[in-house]
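Dear Dr. H.,

I hope your travels went smoothly. While you were away I took the liberty of generating a structure for the chain from your last submission, since the lab meeting agenda had it listed for discussion. I wanted you to have the full record in hand beforehand rather than looking at slides cold. The sequence, exactly as received, is reproduced here:
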Amino acid sequence: MYPNSADPNDTVVKQPGGPFDRVVEKMTTAIQEHSITAKPRRDPAQPNTQEYRDWLRQNEFNPFIDRAWLLMGKAHVQNKDYTEAISVLSYTVRLFAYDIDVVSEAQIWMMRAYTEMGWFSDAEGLALTLQVRRLPKDLHDKFTEFYALLLIRQEKYRDALPFLIQTVKSEKSGIQKRRLQFLLGQVYAHLGERENAYNAFEQIKKLSTPYDEVFNALVAQSQVATGDGEIIGELQKMAENKKNSAYLDRIYAAIGDVYLSRNNVEKAIENYLLAEEKSVRNGVEKALTQVTLGDIYFERKDFLKAEPRYSQALGALPRSSGNYARVEFRTDVLGELVPHMEVLARQDSLRQLAVQPDESDKIIEGELFRIGSIAKDRLGDFEFAVEVYNRHLTDFPESIRRKEVYHQLYQLYLRMGNRAMAKSLKDKIISEFPQSEYAAAMSDPDYEHVVRNYARVQDSLYQQTYLAYQQGQVETVQGNFKRAQKLFFNGHLMPKFMLLNALSLAQSGNPEQLNTALSELIQKHPGTEETKMAQQILAGLSEGKTLVANVQPFSGIDWESHIVAGNAADSVCFEKEKNLPHSLLLLFSPNSLRKNELLFAVSDFNFSNFQIRSFHTDYTYVSPYEALQIKPFRSFEEAGRYASMLAGDSIFRQNITTGIVPLVISDKNLEILRDGEPLENYISFVTNEVNDGLSDSIPLIVSVKIPQTITETEKNVPLEPEKTGKPDIASKKPTPKQSERLTDEQRLEELERKAEEALRQTGDVFSKRDRERILKEREEARKEWIKQRERDLKQREKVRKEILKQRERERKQKLKEQERLRKEKLKERERIVQQRNEK
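The corresponding predicted structure, in token form, is as follows:
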């Protein structure tokens, strides 16, 4: 709907700023230099009406500043900086709450920002508020436009139609009007209203439309028109026109679409191949044609032809395309399947030529088994898998894999609902392989249910086992492991079951059995994460360390000889210099909070407290935490002061209900952490090496618990905020400095009180130099306040004198007018008297 809308599938991290940065800068300057917040004196000549009292209570007296705030918020939306936009616009709503039109316009653009971010519930809440409000025509048109966008993003196309039609009618920009008209045709086509879609595309030709857009409309019309024969003729004429030589791929693709809609698949393939051949741009159009060709070949199980189409299309197909996930999946699966099918086809040819038949048979047998497994487990094509496995049994009746093939066919027939064939294969396994693991598993009365719900049952059993391990229920863990060995002996969670079983042996104090269980895990499942942990435990045992028995388990291993803190050698790699660029990291456990809420809370805090200075925020990863990085800071102390302000901000603590970990770190040290240095080493470094002066006053590092391996340090840095519900951005209460208006004397007292309180809080930890600096800042603030008060008094006196002069001029003018009227009346009276005398 808009060329600069956010792409929800874009994986590239959006950097702050954009083409509208200049607008943001100019509006910021305008607000700083021209905002009038000093209250005027009450005018005794003004009647004491409610309107006048409301005017005196407002916070801004420059009647044009509201436009600057709105324009700044809109510029952030155009830059795709939606959290910044919401911060500016929500503050605008609070600042100009007395002007309903300003509030409405800000909320309309907030609705657009929420929609672009995918926060549909918040956007819907604003939409409900605005729908019951009487809006001026220009705001009503903009609301209709953005509400249509909201409904389309939610895929409520039928509901969006009336709003989209109204938006097209009211749009004045020719370029945007054509874009919206084309979108209207696409919505009609999606809803199956082919005639309305055809007419919508026809209207584009009447809007002074460039030829390439007319061509797009014609191609779109060909896909929704009803006269198939006429359409093909028109498209073929277009293909013969030299003017359309650059569009031949799209024309032939459109012809192929028509034939495909008529179920003439062969003619459709013929034209799709022409479209693929004639493409000169290798862009999205060619990718869509290749996807359609791939789908046709895929349905025919001609995977050798389908795979190259999907793989080529995936590189050009945008992630926002509705086909992307399907194409990506099929590309991945066919990329694994097709090499085996190519080997199979080549070996079949060699066997027919009687060239090394025995070696070919061995290769063919292995490839058939692998193709069947991929078709069953990855592709999900059960019929094709059955076909492949049956060929395996037919061609190789004495194969050593016969038992596995029987079991695979048994699972397939159960899932396909063919109970008779499933029972036949079960009987074969039990009769031909009575001592096998498969026969043992099939003896379980719940085995059929397990096969039908394999993944869900396996995962459920593992979750129960893990919970029992956390609660120290050793017998339950070991019992569930034996059941998993019986039912899921070749499942992907088997290494995890084996690790939990081994750890339960450590809980029960059986070091010899623990050693045996870990060695078995390493032998049977090499290369897994569980094997790496098992190797670390065995290494620790070989060094003479012992596991603590009868303890409550956690994500790491608790050794009796574990290290409490990093030593000096762990810290030498970090930079001690504090006057370097620093960042503040807000660490949190993955999936423990909504990232957008944290990002908005920090952006709102920055905007409310730093109107001149700007900070960049971005998400990063510091193992084992995710982190929101706030930068730049010029030194360790500056970042620490910011962290203290953030931790003490009540609005921020209300918005964030999940524990976070504030951590100040220089950019150089952050790179060291990213290179693999453990986080606890940096915590130890800060505790031991940066433990002086101001650093002691920063609430950064207190007991943090970090998931560890055998010899790693365990600390924890919780920051427990106040527990509240989800923040309501549009209605969030402003801070007192934004909402309360104090007298001059009260403001001076408040300033001095805050300064004294700050000194009391920092007096015990700040050095003498820091105390002098704070006193100096306080004195400068007091002097600045006095200067500002003098300027306000001069301005008020100037205004008062101007009012007095104006009143004096008005009084003199009034007296002059009264004198003129008196003289005219006197003359009139004399004239009447003279007339009477003459009579």
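Two observations you may find useful: Residues 568-730 form one domain. The chain is about 65% helix and 5% strand.

With kind regards,
E. W.
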